[in-house]
């Protein structure tokens, strides 16, 4: 019997009832689907949890960087390329060339670094981990790295004292957050002008914090590989039993501070032999503390009050550069001195073992033999 004949045999009431039921079922299914659609749209948004790093596909980053077309620079771990996201955000994409760890460890580390937020830290926007590709996506800082702005013999513009002073304060604030104010202590391990980036208003932000951990740490042991850059490495890196603590960063900060104030590199072979090494010059001047400012060239370009600040800053640098890590201040203490609420230690020992060693020329990156056991990121 056909469906039509069957319906004719049924009572009109039953037909009406059947009709309403069919409509109801169809509507319910359609409604369910649209709810699902809406949920999917919401899920798409949730992929970008505010404040958490986004996971990009390799293809998305190829598009964003126009196939890795514009290289911003190259460091110890790979190259950095400029890019732009769909919403117009400018990005710097670091393509890691060494594979140091498996997928899950990389993801965990990217998540950990991405959750660090401070105005003076370069923000990790996202990452990509696909097969053998490992990429990190950072906010783009239009004025590039500090080394292009503070050395008078480098081509390009040179920053005035006021701006350089603000930059020193910015670096100290970023470091204070890493060392003392975030949930875990993070030792940067590679504080140097190339890892300090400047935004369009010349605010300084620290880059590459925790990167050594991201790349080198073997999850089976709490050891870190020796890394850093000659000229910025604290003496304890050379000691077989030297403990690697936040004070290695304080030492590197001391060198950076000295370089910013003196507007030259710590080791500069283009200088006459007596001025070859800033640290050696500082050691010599240390006998008469008020003469430390003599290590700065072209002093007549500075006002009297600038010179007082410069003398103070050099003393802070010397405080940070002492051989004994215990004698170096915490960065929160440095901040207090920079902000003028505390005095520099009056008992600085101006004997720097590194002043005796001529550092290798250039800024070759080190990432090699494991040093004594130490933990890069300890619970506080
Ligand atoms: N977020 C960024 N915005 C703008 N420029 C950047 C950014 N990140 C890196 N760069 C540029 O790319 C260069 C290379 O950076 P990279 O971190 O790879 O090397 P590095 O800092 O010289 O050495 P290291 O490997 O020790 O960090 C930097 O010196 C800087 O000029
Ligand atoms: Mg770097």
Automatic annotation (TrEMBL):
Binding site for ATP: 94
Keywords from the named record: ATP-binding, Disulfide bond, EGF-like domain, Glycoprotein, Kinase, Lectin, Membrane, Nucleotide-binding, Phosphoprotein, Receptor, Serine/threonine-protein kinase, Signal, Transferase, Transmembrane, Transmembrane helix
Family designation: Belongs to the protein kinase superfamily.
Coiled-coil portions: none
Pfam families, A to Z: Pkinase
Domain of life of the native organism: Eukaryota
Membrane topology: Single-pass type I membrane protein
Enzymatic reactions: L-seryl-[protein] + ATP = O-phospho-L-seryl-[protein] + ADP + H(+); L-threonyl-[protein] + ATP = O-phospho-L-threonyl-[protein] + ADP + H(+)
EC code: 2.7.11.1
GO cellular component, one term: membrane
InterPro entries, per the entry: G-type_lectin_kinases/EP1-like, Kinase-like_dom_sf, Prot_kinase_dom, Protein_kinase_ATP_BS, Ser/Thr_kinase_AS
Organism from which the protein derives: Populus euphratica
Protein name: non-specific serine/threonine protein kinase
Keyword Transmembrane attached: yes
Subcellular location, record wording: Membrane
UniProt GO molecular function: ATP binding; carbohydrate binding; protein serine/threonine kinase activity
PROSITE patterns: PROTEIN_KINASE_ATP (PS00107), PROTEIN_KINASE_DOM (PS50011), PROTEIN_KINASE_ST (PS00108)
Domain Protein kinase: 66-357
